[in-house]
């Protein structure tokens, strides 16, 4: 209706739960507006009844009802508006199993519940509307330790564990903002017997994140303007034509599309919160994508082999590098960092990934703003040793630099301000 909030409504219900299933009474919130409510192109382009309605989903949330509470707290509606604002601005959609790093108590209290996982709502099945299909994704509040476990292993695995612990959510995954213990403190065996074993066996199914990141080509002096499409981080990127920019953006948006076979190219059409998840994990991954091949003509952007590169990450993104190496590359997979401030992307690939334009002979290669880095298993093991202090953020002082001169690779962990003010 023209107001500042992306969602038209948030309905709030008192849900009596299900005593037979040990589901307590709670408040149930449902958003309206991520899907197409009108079918008149006012908010969403109407694409027909068979496809998704609007973004194809609405958000739900289940909050434990406190004794004596006669009306639902309204802060979950603000939380939903924040997530919806992100979806509208970025056009990134969410999927079941995604996580959202929030870094703040969801209700602005002192709670340990500071992040979110997303899963199918246990009561609300997908519905066919006159304007397309709508699924319902439930927000589940989690502690930092549970978020990290979801990143290192997978969101669905942690959600299943939460379902088995009544105090941490139970079968309907009800968020209790007063929960003071993680599932690993409630049941210490879960970490070792389920999560650690799962990481070792499965690796991580997180194939990419939105991040504060950048890369520099150190192969040539910065004043070399011969290639108008090279990427210069730390100064304004050289300008592409509007058509070139849109085609690159479209490729990055659609590249990491997952098909029935393990096909995981550069940045996802279904990029969820900027996170990508393998739908069919396989030892043999592929970076080929029919969609990206069809979108960008080869003469538009040529692939460049680089001799030496400098990677730059903020601390949160840098902390995921060990996950990328141990949970992805050592399992024959790949991992992509997509810049939240532009089209820049960095994909690490292992030698087992098919369709990559980085090769063992030329391990650093760029396709427009997208850099691929191929790392051998031997080098990955060495990097994991050298990057061990990334696992201890409390002892970390920025900026921090890691360098492998013989590999002509440099990695810097920098303060957020460097990425927020790229001209400085």
TrEMBL record:
Record gene name: Sufu
Positions of the UniProt region annotated as Disordered: 217-245, 263-290
Residue ranges constituting the Suppressor of fused C-terminal domain according to the UniProt record: 193-413
Comp. bias regions, Basic and acidic residues: 276-287
Protein name: Suppressor of fused homolog
One Pfam family cited in the UniProt record for this chain: SUFU_C
Family to which the UniProt record says this protein belongs: Belongs to the SUFU family.
Keyword Nucleus: yes
Gene3D superfamilies, sorted: Sufu, C-terminal domain
């Amino acid at each position: 209706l023209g107001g500042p909030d992306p969602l038209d409504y948030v309905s709030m219900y008192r849900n009596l739960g299900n005593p037979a299933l040990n589901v307590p009474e709670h408040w149930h919130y449902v958003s309206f507006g991520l899907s197409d409510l009108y079918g008149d192109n006012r908010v969403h382009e109407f694409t027909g009844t068979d496809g998704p309605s609007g973004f194809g989903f609405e958000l739900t949330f289940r909050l434990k009802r406190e004794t004596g509470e006669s009306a639902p707290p309204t802060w979950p509606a603000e939380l939903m508006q924040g997530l919806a604002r992100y979806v509208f601005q970025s056009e990134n959609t969410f999927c079941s199993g995604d996580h959202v790093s929030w870094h703040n108590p969801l209700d602005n209290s002192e709670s340990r519940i500071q992040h979110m996982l997303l899963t199918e709502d246990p009561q609300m099945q997908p519905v066919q509307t006159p304007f397309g299909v709508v699924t319902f994704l439930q927000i589940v509040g989690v502690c930092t330790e549970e978020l990290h476990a979801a990143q290192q292993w997978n969101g669905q695995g942690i959600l299943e564990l939460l379902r088995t612990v009544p105090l941490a959510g139970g079968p309907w995954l009800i968020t209790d903002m007063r929960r003071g213990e993680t599932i690993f403190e409630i049941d210490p065996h879960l970490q070792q017997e389920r999560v650690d074993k799962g990481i070792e066996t499965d690796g991580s199914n997180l194939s990419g994140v939105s991040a504060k990141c950048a890369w520099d080509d150190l192969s040539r002096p910065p004043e070399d303007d011969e290639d108008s499409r090279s990427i210069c981080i730390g100064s304004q990127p050289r300008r592409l034509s509007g058509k070139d920019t849109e085609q690159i953006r479209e490729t990055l948006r659609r590249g990491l599309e997952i098909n029935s076979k393990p096909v995981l190219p550069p940045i996802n059409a279904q990029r969820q919160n900027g996170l990508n998840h393998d739908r069919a994990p396989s030892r043999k991954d592929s970076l080929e994508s029919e969609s990206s091949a069809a979108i960008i003509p080869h003469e538009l952007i040529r692939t460049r082999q680089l001799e030496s590169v400098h990677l730059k990450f903020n601390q949160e993104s840098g902390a995921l590098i060990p996950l990328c190496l141990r949970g992805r590359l050592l399992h024959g997979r790949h991992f992509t960092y997509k810049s939240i401030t532009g089209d820049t992307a960095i994909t690490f690939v292992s030698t087992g990934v098919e369709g990559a334009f980085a090769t063992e002979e030329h391990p650093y290669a760029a396709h427009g703003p997208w850099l691929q880095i191929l790392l051998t298993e031997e080098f990955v093991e060495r990097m994991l040793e050298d990057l061990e202090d990334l696992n201890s953020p409390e002892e970390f002082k920025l900026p921090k630099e890691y360098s492998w001169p013989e590999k002509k690779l440099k990695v810097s962990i920098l303060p957020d301000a460097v990425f927020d003010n790229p001209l400085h």
